[in-house]
Amino acid sequence: MHCPFCRHSDSRVIDSRTSDDGLSIRRRRQCPECGGRFSTIETASLNVIKRSGVIESFSREKVMSGVRKACQGRPVTEADLAMLAQAVEESVRQTGVSQIDTNEIGLAILGPLRELDEIAYLRFASVYQAFETLDDFDDAIALLRADHAERASRQDA
């Protein structure tokens, strides 16, 4: 890490703290040459392998954009989308891999989206699970209904 003041090629870490979201570390540094102090924010890189083979950095905004399309006309707020994107990023980071396929991200979206809005879930699932017929929709709806019935029976017990 180069000093932003004198461009010396070394610095000493004075203090380290985890950020509020737990995904980055803020380090307070001091240059041994000029004594200048500065802060850095460090995050573990997470790259996405697209279908074309291109690799790019993970973006919560892209997750939100893709889900926003499925949520069009549904009672889902931007704050809901931001929370979903954060949950997806956290679950993807917990896998411990530094590169992940776009399809895996799509699948990671399904669970939180199902909890957020079932219609948006069906819209999104139809793309990521490659629904081809009405039977595919029927099967997905049957699973949702079975889940509702199971939850209702647990609440009654």
TrEMBL record:
One of its GO terms (molecular function) is DNA binding. InterPro entries: ATP-cone_dom, NrdR-like_N, RNR_NrdR-like. Belongs to the NrdR family. It comes from Microbacterium oleivorans. Binds 1 zinc ion. This is Transcriptional repressor NrdR. A zinc finger (unnamed) spans 3-34. Keywords: ATP-binding, DNA-binding, Metal-binding, Nucleotide-binding, Repressor, Transcription, Transcription regulation, Zinc, Zinc-finger. The keyword ATP-binding applies. Negatively regulates transcription of bacterial ribonucleotide reductase nrd genes and operons by binding to NrdR-boxes. Residues 46-136 form the ATP-cone domain. Its cofactor is Zn(2+). Residues 7-20 have a biased composition (Basic and acidic residues). The lineage of its organism: Bacteria, Bacillati, Actinomycetota, Actinomycetes, Micrococcales. Residues 1-20 are annotated as: Disordered. PROSITE patterns: ATP_CONE. It comes from the Bacteria. One of its GO terms (biological process) is negative regulation of DNA-templated transcription. HAMAP family: NrdR (MF_00440).
